[in-house]
């Protein structure tokens, strides 16, 4: 552990003790030296004795800053690992960070660009438009086009502080994995590793630029979603320059009402955008919380979403997409056995799982919803409840599925906030059914063959040579197999001959022994013994050599 991690460890320890987190550790997990050590840190006392456990953890993470806040936010989506009360408290974590010195921002931007700000931009505003835990945003206009843009710059030394916190988390996770009896279910090391990959990706703004460009191209000319343009010529590892949008925050309901927004269509388009990203494009914005979503001020009767902050994206395998769509449709048809079977076939559930018990658990989750109208059912919550069965079954919850579940909860919650009567299934079911049809049947097979036809045509001239080579190879293999079989049969023949001769030798020895104890038969006994020796030598030298195999 580095010196920075040691210093950070003390800060984390002090914060934990100030929030009384040591009292949350069960007595059975406290070693003999825990109480004396705690007594030595007498100046670090619990300052929140009356608050519930989940609230204490939330406040501690909030005090520790960006990395721990984001980690708590990520944990709040892992309801397969946490109780509802803990998940609810952690979901309230707010990433509110004061801005850093604007002069430092200007110096960092110029260092990334290798040029002065005034040589590339006009009307640069030193006052930040927004400030978050990892970055800060300023506004300006491009020098030659006067196009309004925003400049997103990482905080000074943020990589160093993030790496120190991640290293500390990894050390604590490994220690917990070794000491906690429930560590297998909690998968502490895996959770920290998932988080490390996510937050390290956010520290390279070039990745966000690539993600945003891909999402923009996927929805180019779409009436449902607009992704601001990225200016790659000005974007760097620590700097992102993108088009400035003029939208209404999606949570500003009064302003949306004032401009006459069609809330029903807006809510339905949120569902449409989500399922299109997941199933059509297999590339979805995985951080669609309300702070990253705006609504265009243009055509409020035909509203369009604006999405920003594309640092976190998700993708599913083709198998995961099919199983996920099948799960949704099976739930719609109340086919709970089908849901269990899909979980098992997908590999999300261990092969050692008691299938009957798992099916019963699925039905336990879904049966109470059978009599409810679809408009009253939260499908994000259903998916979340299915993941929570990991507390009783060894379900392997894939990171990409956790991202998808979190995104679905955001989308569904936002849609019902905008339009409480939203029936997610009325919008999603036709889309899913059409997508499932596109994956099976003659048309789907023909389409897939059509996609690969250029590849087949490219390899067609090679086919005669490949066929000849394979036939020749097959003929050679057949000849080799015949030779091996002949050698094996010869080996077994010699082996049987040797065993037979040795067996005859043994019988003659027994006969010689019997004759030797009879009167007047010593001569025949000696003769049989000599003959037995001859057969023994013959059998011994008839043994097949192993190199003949």
What does this structure look like?
The chain has 549 residues and is an alpha+beta fold. Helices cover 59% and strands 7% of the residues. The chain has helices spanning 3-18, 34-40, 53-64, 66-75, 84-90, 102-113, 117-120, 158-179, 183-186, 188-202, 205-218, 253-258, 263-281, 318-332, 336-346, 355-366, 379-388, 399-418, 424-439, 441-459, 463-516, 522-541, and strands spanning 121-122, 130-131, 135-142, 148-154, 225-226, 239-243, 247-249, 284-285, 293-296, 305-307, 313-314. The strands form three sheets. Strands 1, 2, 3, 4 and 6 form a five-stranded antiparallel beta sheet that branches. Strand 2 and strand 3 (135-142) form a beta hairpin. It is elongated. This is ABC1 atypical kinase-like domain-containing protein. Belongs to the protein kinase superfamily. ADCK protein kinase family. Pathway: Cofactor biosynthesis; ubiquinone biosynthesis [regulation]. Keywords: ATP-binding, Cell inner membrane, Cell membrane, Kinase, Membrane, Nucleotide-binding, Transferase, Transmembrane, Transmembrane helix, Ubiquinone biosynthesis.
